[in-house]
Amino acid sequence: MTVGLPHFLTIGAALFALGIFAMMTRRNAVALLMGVELILNGANVNFVAFARYVDGGVDGHLMAAFVIVLAAAEAAVGLAIVLAMFRNFGTVHVDTVNRLKR
Amino acid sequence: MLSENSILWTALSILLLPLLSYVIIFFFGKKLPRKGDWVGVTLLFASWIQALRIFVTFWRHGDPQFRVEGAVRWLDLGRFTADAGILVDGTTAVMLVVVTTVSMLVHLYSVGYMHGDRRYERFFAFLGFFTFSMMGIVLSNSLLLLYMFWELVGLASYLLIGFFFHKHSAANANKKAFLTNRVGDFGFFIGILILFTAYGTFNYLELFAHMQVAPIGGALLTWAGVGLFMGCIGKSAQAPLHIWLPDAMEGPTPVSALIHAATMVAAGVYMVARLQPLFDPSAMLVIAYVGSITAFLAATIAVVKTDIKKSLAYSTISQLGYMVMAMGVGVAGAGMFHLWTHAFFKALLFLGSGSVIHAVHTQEMPLMGGLRKKMPITFWTFAIATIAISGVPFFSGFYSKDAILAGALAFGWIDGHIVPFVLALLAAGFTAFYMFRMLFQTFFGKPRDMERYEHAHESPWTMALPLVFLAVLAIGSAGWKGPTDGWFGKFVAPYDMEMIVAQYGPAGHDVQAEAVHVEAETTEGHAAETQADEHAAVDPHAETPAAVHGGADEHAVAATHEGGHEGGHDVHHKAHNTAMILSILTAGLGILLAWLTYMRRIISAPAILARLPWVHKVLQNMYYFDELYAATVYRFTLWFSWLNGAFDRVVIDGIVNGAGYLTRVLSWFSGQIDKWVVDGLVNGVGAAIQVSGEGIRRVQTGRIQTYLVYVCFSILVLVLVFRAL
């Protein structure tokens, strides 16, 4: 059996779905960031797979590289927020931090 | 001797000086030294001098038809105009002297009598105000002005009767006086309105002239006369409206002397005398009967009164009855003469009684007695006044009363109404009796209350001087002859109607003017009033029948007696002698009885009264006049008030309450609609928005997971939708 495009797409969709699922179910801010990472990487898998099997160029790779950089930046900012959150509230559960709502 | 113009100015000053006194004392009295009593006395003295000047002028002029009139335009209301003016004639001159003399003496007397009163200056202010109003009545030349001053006098009387208003009885007495007078004034006003409606003028002389030329037909003239006379009934305290005068004695004694003895009560008599031509024979008959009945009733009541002032009050009513009767029987001159003499001796009696009251601090005669030695001046003056009022010959009261009785007797012989004369004669006897009873009880015998007797003393000179002055007048004010043949005839005589018609007659009355054949003269005379004297001379006597018998104002007796026509001269002469003998006899009898009863004690008054208990009871209760009013007018008023109250309660309140109830029911309905429909809509909209808001709000949970679920679900929906396309 040869490995073709559908396999990659399946893996991408699975990663995306797992990410979504993580974001929907977890209340831990760090876990949420991890979910986001999963979604981004699911997208990256799709970019690279389409570049390899459909386009043949490097456009998809390029886009994937951008996404990785963006993810790193996002993780840095996100973790900083989580850190500040913990310092201020003593917790990283997103739904217990609701002071503005009250 | 004053010129015509200066007579008017002098008269005006007599009117205004008391007003000035009132204004000064009322506003500045408290700040003036001695509280300003000297202002009142001085100004009244000036007023008195002015009155004397007018009096002397008329005396020297000697013509009772001489009159001066001056007026200024007062109201100008389209077709109707009214003048405010002064009419001075002989009658006025006499009255001016009466009022100013008594008023001045009362001012002087009050300085002593009211000494130390808390409202001393207010008293003098009111006296000035009264004198001013009274002068207005005396001087006014039209009914409108007369009515105005008439009411002002009523007000002044009200203020002065209630001067001691902290006393309950005084506060009631002034209300009674005012209200009783209002009843009379009501008739007076109707009389004025009848005359004004008929002739369109208020001026006396114009009214007389109109009435000569065109008398009002039928009974209306009588009613006008009776209406005017009602004013006199009220003001001059004639039966049946005399009830206020005895109560008015609650006022300070100087007030009783000034207002309720000498001047104000004489206003009614003066008014009737001055308006003689306006009364037709029927009205005159009413006047004669009312006057004589009053004279008799009041004289009998005075006999049983023990309060010295009350007794004098009834005496006043009785004497006023004489004057009024004189007007009725057509001897107005004699009535005015009696007014003149009576003013002095009655003022003297009141001031003397005031002096006594001042000394013994009681008004009850049974508590006095023997004061003759303690108060010689008061005693002698009081005795002179008593002799004068009783009708003892050669004192002033004799001449005037005699003239009235003679007039009444002549009236009885000619017109067949002898009742007034009989009543008046009886009243004369009673007068002599009760006056001497008063004199004996007060000044003679043994003192009945030693404590009061010891305390008694003669009054200060301010009180004694007016007494002496008035005593001189009480003796000599009549002169030595009757009203027509003596000096008084120069002042008071019946109006010369031909002269007045010529001078004041209506210009445009063609029909009536033809009827009396004076058309040319009247129009011409009216055009040039200054030449009136000549016209009066030119005017043929026989051609004005209205003046002799058609005018229906001059009484037959008046014409015969006062005018001195040959026809009734014998009758009058006989009447005069008969009346004189009878009046001397009755007066002597009255005095003798009083002497026997109260000095010699041969006749026992209690024994007689015990024999006739009902007579005493009726007299003590003053013929039950007050009870009569209580049973009729008073009860009717209460009943009528109750009726009105019931009408108010049932009908008016019913309508109001019904309207209120209806409004309430309608409001309730309106409220229900508001509550359920309008509010329902408003609340419904609000509630709908709230409910939907509540629902929609739940979408915004603020939790990222929820939004993520929405996003995923929405994408799923979109994918499903667009896949189908």
Helix % of chain A is over 70%
Low-confidence segments of chain A: none
Helix content of chain B: over 70%
Q: How can the largest sheet of chain A be summarized?
A: none
The helix/strand order of chain A is HHH
Counted beta strands of chain B: 2
What's the short version?
Chain A has helices at 5-25, 29-55, 59-89.
Provide keyphrases for this structure.
heterodimer, A: mainly alpha, Helix Hairpins, 3 helices, elongated, B: 725 residues, mainly alpha, two-stranded antiparallel ribbon, 2 strands
Describe this structure in words.
- The complex is a heterodimer of chains A (102) and B (725).
- Chain A has 102 residues and is mainly alpha-helical.
- Chain A has a single domain, classed as Orthogonal Bundle (Helix Hairpins), CATH 1.10.287.
- Chain A has three helices and no strands.
- The longest helix of chain A has 31 residues.
- The model of chain A has no long low-confidence stretch (mean pLDDT 89).
- Helix content of chain B is 74%, strand content 3%.
- A two-stranded antiparallel ribbon of chain B has the order 1-2.
- In chain B, 50% of the residues are buried.
- About 8% of the residues of chain B have low confidence.
How do the strands and helices of this protein lay out in sequence?
The complex is a heterodimer of chains A (102) and B (725).
Chain A: H1 5-25, H2 29-55, H3 59-89
Helix pairs in contact in A: 1-2, 2-3
Chain B: H1 4-28, H2 37-61, E1 68-77, E2 80-88, H3 90-113, H4 120-139, H5 143-161, H6 168-199, H7 204-213, H8 220-235, H9 244-247, H10 253-262, H11 264-274, H12 281-304, H13 308-328, H14 332-360, H15 376-390, H16 396-415, H17 419-443, H18 450-455, H19 461-476, H20 497-504, H21 510-515, H22 519-527, H23 532-538, H24 545-550, H25 556-563, H26 569-598, H27 605-611, H28 613-620, H29 625-697, H30 704-724
Antiparallel strand pairs in B: 1-2
